[in-house]
Amino acid sequence: QVQVVESGGGLVQPGGSLRLSCAASGSIRSMYSMGWYRQAPGAQRELVALIFNSGSLQFGDSAKGRFTISRDNGKNTMYLEMNNLKPEDTAVYYCAVRLLNGSPRYWGQGTQVTVSS
């Protein structure tokens, strides 16, 4: 069993920055990937950023050039640094962990990010 917990959400003004954290715990030997997804009201969940155990990165279009993803393998923790935030970044941000390529993801409960003046 794997537990995933996000933290760091909140209210920020347009143009501001926020750092999200995701901690995974439980029966983990290694993790194929850790990733951030987000879901705005009335919209589908979308990819924000992925980091693979190889070190490769993948970003959704909305995150390119503004968001940075990093990972501390020793602590099974991942971070999302979000800069130049826009009102359209407002959403619930979810962390997802995949232990093996193709295996089901473990999801966190989500953390709310609101960008508003």
What does it look like?
The structure is a single chain. 0% of the residues lie in helices and 54% in strands. The chain is mostly beta strands and 117 residues long. The strands form 2 sheets. Strands 2, 4, 5, 6, 9, 10 and 11 form a 7-stranded mixed β-sheet that branches. Strands 1-3-8-7 form a 4-stranded antiparallel β-sheet, with no helix packed on it. A hairpin with a 4-residue loop joins strand 7 (67-72) and strand 8. It is globular and about 45 Å long. The chain starts with a strand and ends with a strand. The mean pLDDT is 95.
Break the fold down into its secondary structure elements and pairings.
Blueprint: E1 2-7, E2 10-12, E3 18-26, E4 33-39, E5 46-52, E6 57-59, E7 67-72, E8 77-82, E9 91-98, E10 105-107, E11 111-115
Parallel strand pairs: 2-11
Antiparallel strand pairs: 1-3, 3-8, 4-5, 4-9, 5-6, 7-8, 9-10, 9-11
* Structural class based on helices, strands and sheet pairing: mainly beta
Low-confidence region ranges: none
Order of helices and strands: EEEEEEEEEEE
Globally, the shape reads globular
Number of helices: 0
Average of per-residue pLDDT values = 95
The strand count comes to 11
Largest sheet: 7 strands, mixed
What fraction of the residues are assigned to beta strands by DSSP?
A: over 45%
- Helicity, in percent? under 10%
Radius of gyration from the CA trace? 14 Å
